[in-house]
Design brief:
Radius of gyration: 17 Å
Shape: globular
Strand order of the largest sheet: 3-2-1-4-5-6-7
Number of helices: 8
InterPro entries: 3oxo_ACP_reduc (IPR011284), KR_dom (IPR057326), NAD(P)-bd_dom_sf (IPR036291), Sc_DH/Rdtase_CS (IPR020904), SDR (IPR050259), SDR_fam (IPR002347)
CATH superfamily: NAD(P)-binding Rossmann-like Domain
Strand content: 15-25%
CATH architecture: 3-Layer(aba) Sandwich
GO molecular function, one term: NAD binding
Catalytic activity: a (3R)-hydroxyacyl-[ACP] + NADP(+) = a 3-oxoacyl-[ACP] + NADPH + H(+)
Protein name: 3-oxoacyl-[acyl-carrier-protein] reductase
Largest sheet: 7 strands, parallel
Enzyme class: oxidoreductase
Structural class: alpha/beta
Bound molecules: NADPH dihydro-nicotinamide-adenine-dinucleotide phosphate
Oligomer: single chain
CATH class: Alpha Beta
Length: 234
């Protein structure tokens, strides 16, 4: 059965791979984008998730064009890496505002229709560094760890309404976000990954799709690592 899916930041990188995975399975997929043109084959809704009004308008458009959101993937995220002593309050706050509060805005808006339908699937994209920590990424790691507490609280709050909340924690994935790393940094990371390579975006997408499928009907509040073994034990 075709469902109404919304992927934030589904216009590129991991989000686009997630959007493709759902579309390939026959779902109707909307993706948010902030500028330029959205990718072909999806309902593109312009939306900056730091603005609650834009989030509301985006949901209205999705509801009109493909129905209330049944599967929500909170994927949009940013980094502003800096060592603590050089990290400004804005560097910290803006990353939290996008990665954590942004997810709050989107989940809260999606929840309205999910409560009414008495079903829903929410998948939040965290990161291995949320649990492992990462020097120079205190803001990012805090935002990604925050998503775990957020999802697990909602799994408890809304489980009786048949809404599941799960977290996917990718390791290093080949996208624009990691292109900024130097060759030396990349080699250092790969050396710590048991599988000895970066992930492809579609490898993250496959897990997200599973968590939103009927096969995952009894999974909620889970944190699923898709990290080549990098975070084992955490
Ligand atoms: P990219 O930098 O390639 O893409 C980021 C996406 O987030 C873009 O679609 C971007 O939209 C969107 N976005 C950023 N800020 C906002 C905002 N305020 N409102 C709406 N959309 C926004 O990143 P990845 O694809 O690599 O990452 C996707 C997710 O996966 C992120 O949450 C990231 O933290 C997480 N992740 C990534 C890993 C990696 O190694 N790449 C590892 C672990 C987790 P726009 O095009 O408009 O900028």
């Amino acid at each position: 059965m075709s469902r109404s899916v919304l992927v934030t930041g589904g216009n590129r990188g991991i989000g686009l791979a997630i959007a493709r995975a759902f579309a390939d399975a026959g779902d109707q997929v909307a993706v948010t984008y902030r500028s330029g043109e959205p990718p072909a084959g999806f309902l593109g809704v312009k939306c900056d998730i730091t603005d609650a009004e834009q989030v509301d308008l985006a949901f209205k458009e999705v509801e009109e064009k493909q129905g209330p959101v049944e599967v929500l993937v909170c994927n949009a995220g940013v980094t502003k890496d800096q060592l603590l002593m050089r990290m400004s309050e804005d560097d910290f706050g803006s990353v939290i505002d996008t990665n954590l509060t942004g997810a709050f805005r989107v989940v809260k808006r999606a929840n309205r229709a999910m409560l009414r339908a008495r079903k829903g699937r929410v998948v939040l994209i965290s990161s291995v560094v949320g649990l492992l920590g990462s020097a120079g990424q205190a803001n990012y790691a805090a935002s990604k760890a925050g998503l775990v507490g957020f999802a697990r609280s909602l799994a408890r709050e809304l489980g009786s309404r048949n809404i599941t909340f799960n977290v996917v924690a990718p390791g290093f994935v080949d996208t624009d976000m990691t292109k900024v790393l130097s060759e030396e940094q990349r080699a250092g990371i790969v050396a710590q990954v048991p599988l000895g390579r970066y992930a492809e975006p579609k490898e993250i997408a496959a897990t997200v799709r599973f968590l939103a499928s009927d096969d995952a009907s009894y999974i909620t509040g889970a944190v699923i690592p898709v990290d080549g073994g990098l975070g084992m034990g955490h």
